[in-house]
């Protein structure tokens, strides 16, 4: 087996439909949908809340699959050691543990999807999450996946947990709370390994944090995740602090989300103008 | 209750543990080093295969089992310094080149249509050999002096049996034609020959010698 597995080769059964994130964002139908579906906090009184929650649940499910695949590849892709292009034994053990956690999250997501009235393949799959797990530098991979991507998972699970609480859905609230606990652990792993592996290499740390910024901006999904109270997914500041983020780092993610929102609006307006021209 | 000051035997009548064991400290460390090496190779490939298998149930099981074997490798890693090997990496080695050839062949399949080959290698060849090696070790080491190794072997064996059952049931559920039965058998035979050449996961003597003259049981004071 090769030491790197490209995103286009991710193995799926025939139910899954993959869509490129750029295609999805610039698709004129997305513009129309985004106008219909107001950018607002996910609450049961939103007219589209059931569909939005199901779509988010499906997004969580495919995200968990890719997180599992990414952690698994980190076990395989790197030789064991302390060299720059190697992964320490203890890091691989953490990634194997994460494989188990993500596999459980997939199982939980399948059961919850059924509970919420959706099924595998009802919504499309974007593979940008796994793409972040393909970085050839283990530190950048950990930073992109465990701090940026799993950080987003903290925000999403907290949002879904609150949605379950408000909607009076104890099953959803219960499951999301358990997954949230795992994600805090995964983000903390990323924070700890970033500090440990770059303790004597400030340039590498700088590159890793820059990669995290890029990934964080992409994962803000055009403002879908932000620090605003009315955003569909709100930054979960308290849980991010538990996972090793300091206040400045959380503020920076909030700023990136605002930038992403502005850029998405500009892109969507341009796409809409093109569609009506 | 009886008088608490009344002397009792150190070993209760039902406690049949004995001192003699087949392995010295050095021999035990060597075997444990081989165990760590093979558990590492196994968890790494299971993790790597997750992205290559399209069957969702198989994908999730591989992710779960990946952690089981990583944890076993950690158990062996921690046991080595207790066996006077302060540099665990020094003994985390394959027993011979033939075992390296076996692992190379085991980890070769990548294409999404090769799930049967991937699973057969792990669940019909490697894991049964691990169960055999761990069981032999467990039943032949000193139940008193080497109790920590026995405890780890018991934890590992519990996982191995569960994982073997999971994997075997996945294989049975994937095989639907005569051709697929043959594919599974061919794959198992190919890998079994390589394992035979290696002598087992700890090399020759992995499960003792069934043709050796029985040794009288040592009786210690």
The global form of chain B is elongated
Helix content of chain A: 55-70%
Report the CATH superfamily of chain B. Ferritin, core subunit, four-helix bundle
Counting DSSP H or I runs of 4 or more residues, the number of helices of chain B is 7
- Second-tier CATH architecture of chain B: Up-down Bundle
Task: Count every beta strand of chain A, where a strand is a DSSP E run of 2 or more residues.
Answer: 2
According to CATH, the fold-level topology of chain A is Ferritin
Please tell me about this protein's structure.
The complex is a heterodimer of chains A (277) and B (221). Helix content of chain A is 68%, strand content 1%. Chain A is built from ten helices and two strands; from the N terminus they run H-H-H-H-H-H-H-H-E-E-H-H. Chain A has a two-stranded parallel sheet. The radius of gyration of chain A is 18 Å and the shape is globular. Helix content of chain B is 64%, strand content 0%. The model of chain B has no long low-confidence stretch (mean pLDDT 94). At the A-B interface, helix 3 and helix 4 of A face helix 1 and helix 2 of B.
Would you kindly provide a brief summary of this structure?
The complex is a heterodimer of chains A (277) and B (221). Chain A is mostly helical and 277 residues long.
